[in-house]
């Protein structure tokens, strides 16, 4: 009898199969003496579309809403039905005694596997492989300590409840708005509050009126002293007051009243979770949240050099501490070898600033694995993300940054002045970031040795002026932060709901936020100008048309609290779904009775070549396009597309304009132009020259061949035996 192992993706399945010695190729599976390894392709099974319940739902009609199925049906996704049948065939084999769920260790991974098992009608015993990396060592350890799958059933029930609730609210609300206003209007309990936050920020900027404020600065022997009042405020909106003060203090000496010296320590920033990594990648390199997740997935699955990406924790657990040196050894790639070598010589102990079991739920923070890294096989983007994670990992292992803070207190007449400075004592973790500009970096003056009661002549008094600044428009980096902590954007300031949002991680999850942002772009509800995100005219109208509580993070807070209870086995999922159905009925009534109208303000006079309806001009994430105003027609036509091709003069991304043979690349910055024919010819010529990608692929091939030679060697069995001893 054999055990069937179900992985989430083919790449992970191949790794597991190799470790379990499954080399016989089957249809959609690999077989060995003890195990059969098969795989999904992400989701193979999903919730059925409305028309599966009744053919009348093919036509969107307000009279048919709300759609509230008694029992939600599952369907095999047509595009991946072949693999589903292959997986089912292996599961139903008479010689398969049990199944190991080896999909990603998280809520979504649990859903992927369980839906396949449910749809296949399998009743065989289940076990769970729960690992945070896919190195050979992690796989071996995971199979040595398989979990009882029953322990993860509440997590599955939570995932199903979330999926069904999103279906009930999202599909019904989207259809109701679309039918009511004859326009494709998409909404949901996460994407709509996210849209509302962007609109709220835009309104803050629009309503903001800058105010001038003033301060007073004294300069003595290259030391800058800042005036402050009795309330410790260093500025005032009263210019006349500060001007008068300046005049009164002219040509008066400054007397030092107190000198404070404090030795301080600063520990490294916390390790990366996915959201923090996405923020930094967007801020530093302009990568979208989706791009960063895809790069991380490759480093996790293909290269196996980083741990599981979809984590919301920034700490490690106790059991990881003994593996730290092995992970450091695997990270000797040349760039930080001096730091790593010094760390390897010292005992690495558990420390509270990066090890905390209580702050890790399903997965620990993102760190390097024990698998040796070969940066020459990485793409440029993979290299950048890997370096971000590695540097953060090294930083938390290094000692604290130590410095001496100096604060000088003085007076001119009876007015208080203060000067602050810092003396660096030990770089500590900042050694890793010596060539980087950190967020907390600021200009800190060096102070000479000064004693109390010292009197200094004032070189000059300067009246400083500044203006209050409006909040900045969201970028993908700052939007991710707002989604993670949306409390500031909630309409009501209910403390319990605020706390709930903090506990449940805000809007969406680390795994879904990137997709939510992408969907808002793809449905033309938001637009991007350089790095700034703006609500489109369509998005603004949608917020006026959608039910108000569907636009607030509070709804998600309530949902996530309930889903969390389901995952812990504290609440039955059916009770939660009963409430969702009641809420769905409420919003359909609200939408249907609304008197607000929708108007296309981006309608062109150009007609659709398919249905003759007028086309709409929209700003997509990567350019401008025309889309058909008829919601039944899906015609799209690009006006221009921002490509990844770079201008040879100024290296800006080129825009692709025109159609067919008249397509042309244009640089908006310097005016460079190149026709498609010339572009293709140039690309053909480059094929004969080895580029970076060619070298990378060659090195990867060499690495795999070398590995295969070792595995095929007659000594491989002895090496394997050694590992088992």
Task: Explain this structure.
- The protein is an alpha+beta fold.
- It folds into 6 domains: 2-145, Rossmann fold (3-Layer(aba) Sandwich), CATH 3.40.50; 162-206 and 493-593, Topoisomerase I, domain 2 (Orthogonal Bundle); 212-266 and 405-467, Topoisomerase I, domain 3, CATH 2.70.20; 274-397, Topoisomerase I, domain 4, CATH 1.10.290.10; 603-686, no CATH class; 692-724.
- It is built from 22 helices and 25 strands.
- The strands form 5 sheets. The protein has a 7-stranded mixed sheet. Strands 15-12-13-14-11-10-16 form a 7-stranded antiparallel sheet, covered by helices on one side.
- Strand 13 (401-412) and strand 14 form a beta hairpin.
- Helix 10 crosses helix 16.
- The longest helix is centred in the first third of the chain and has 29 residues, at 153-181.
- The radius of gyration is 30 Å and the shape is globular.
- The relative contact order is 0.10.
Lateral arrangement of strands in the main beta sheet: 2-3-4-1-7-8-9
Could you tell me the strand content as a percent range? 15-25%
Would you identify the regions where 5 or more consecutive residues have pLDDT less than 50? 706-725
Tally the helices.
22
Q: Give the overall shape, derived from the CA principal axes.
A: globular
Q: What is the class of the largest domain in the CATH system? A: Mainly Alpha
CATH level-two architecture of the largest domain: Orthogonal Bundle
CATH superfamily of the largest domain: Topoisomerase I, domain 2
Structural class: alpha+beta
Q: pLDDT average, as an integer?
A: 87
> How helical, in percent, are the residues?
25-40%
> What's the structural domain tally?
6
CATH topology of the largest domain: Topoisomerase I, domain 2
Total count of strands: 25
Distance between the ends: 25 Å
For the report, how would you describe the main beta sheet?
A: 7 strands, mixed
Please state the CA-atom Rg, rounded to the nearest Å: 30 Å
């Amino acid at each position: 009898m054999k055990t069937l192992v179900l992985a989430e993706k083919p790449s992970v399945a191949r790794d597991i199969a190799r470790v379990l010695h499954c080399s016989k190729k089957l249809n959609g599976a690999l077989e060995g003496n003890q195990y059969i390894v098969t795989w999904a392709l992400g989701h193979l099974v999903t919730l059925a579309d409305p028309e599966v319940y009744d053919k009348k739902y093919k036509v969107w009609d307000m009279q048919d809403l709300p759609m509230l199925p008694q029992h939600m049906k599952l369907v095999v996704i047509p595009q991946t039905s072949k693999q589903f049948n292959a997986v089912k065939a292996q599961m139903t084999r008479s010689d398969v005694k049990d199944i190991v769920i080896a999909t990603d260790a998280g809520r979504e991974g649990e859903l992927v596997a369980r839906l396949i098992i449910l749809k296949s009608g399998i009743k065989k015993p289940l076990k769970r492989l729960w690992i945070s990396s896919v190195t050979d060592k992690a796989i071996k350890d995971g199979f040595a300590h398989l979990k009882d799958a029953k322990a993860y059933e509440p997590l599955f029930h939570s995932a199903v409840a979330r999926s069904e609730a999103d279906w009930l609210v999202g599909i019904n609300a989207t259809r109701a708005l679309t039918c009511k206003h004859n326009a494709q209007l998409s909404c949901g309990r996460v994407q709509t509050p996210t849209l509302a936050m962007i609109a709220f920020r835009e309104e803050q900027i629009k309503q903001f009126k800058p105010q001038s404020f003033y301060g007073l600065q004294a300069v003595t022997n290259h030391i800058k002293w800042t005036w402050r009042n009795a309330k410790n405020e260093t500025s005032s909106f009263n210019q006349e007051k500060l001007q008068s003060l300046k005049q009164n203090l002219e040509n008066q000496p400054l007397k030092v009243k107190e000198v404070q010296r404090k030795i301080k320590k600063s520990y490294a920033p916390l390790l990366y979770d996915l959201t923090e990594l996405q923020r930094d990648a967007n801020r530093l390199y302009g990568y979208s949240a989706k791009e960063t997740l895809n790069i991380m997935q490759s480093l996790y699955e293909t290269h196996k050099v980083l741990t599981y990406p979809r984590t919301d924790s920034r700490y490690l657990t106790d059991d990881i501490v003994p593996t730290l040196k092995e992970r450091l050894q695997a990270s000797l790639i040349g760039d930080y070898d001096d730091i790593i070598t010094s760390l390897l010589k010292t005992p690495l102990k558990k420390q509270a600033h990066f090890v905390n079991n209580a702050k890790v739920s399903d997965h620990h923070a993102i760190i390097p694995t024990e698998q040796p890294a070969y940066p020459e096989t990485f793409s440029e983007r993979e290299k950048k993300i890997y370096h971000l994670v590695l540097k953060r990992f090294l930083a938390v292992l290094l000692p604290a940054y130590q410095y001496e803070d100096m604060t000088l207190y003085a007076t001119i007449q009876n007015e208080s002045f203060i000067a602050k400075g810092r003396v660096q004592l030990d770089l500590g973790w900042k050694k890793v970031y010596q060539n980087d500009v950190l967020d907390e970096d600021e200009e800190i003056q060096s102070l000479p040795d000064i004693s109390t009661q010292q009197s200094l002549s004032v070189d000059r008094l300067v009246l400083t002026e500044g203006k209050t600044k409006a909040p900045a428009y969201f970028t993908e980096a700052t939007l991710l932060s707002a989604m993670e902590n949306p409390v500031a954007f909630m309409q009501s300031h209910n403390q319990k709901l605020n706390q709930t949002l903090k506990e449940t991680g805000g809007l969406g999850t680390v795994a879904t936020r990137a997709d939510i942002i992408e969907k808002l772009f793809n449905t033309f509800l938001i637009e991007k100008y350089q790095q700034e995100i703006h609500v489109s005219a369509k998005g603004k109208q949608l917020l006026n048309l959608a039910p108000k509580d569907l636009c607030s993070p509070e709804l998600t807070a309530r949902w996530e609290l309930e889903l969390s209870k389901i995952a812990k086995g504290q609440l039955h999922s059916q009770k939660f779904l009963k409430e969702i159905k009641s809420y769905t009925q409420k919003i359909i009534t609200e939408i249907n009775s609304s008197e607000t109208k929708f108007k296309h303000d981006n309608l062109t006079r150009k007609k659709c070549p398919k249905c003759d309806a007028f086309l709409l001009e929209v700003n997509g994430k990567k350019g401008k396009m025309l889309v058909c105003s008829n919601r039944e027609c899906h015609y799209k036509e690009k006006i221009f597309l921002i490509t990844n091709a770079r201008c040879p003069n100024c290296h800006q991304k080129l825009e692709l304009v025109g159609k067919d043979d008249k397509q042309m690349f244009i640089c908006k910055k310097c005016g460079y132009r190149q026709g498609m024919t010339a572009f293709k010819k140039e690309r053909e010529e480059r094929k004969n020259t080895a580029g970076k990608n060619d070298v990378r692929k060659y090195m990867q091939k060499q690495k795999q061949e070398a590995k295969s030679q070792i595995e095929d060697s007659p000594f491989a069995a002895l090496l394997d035996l050694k590992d088992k001893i």
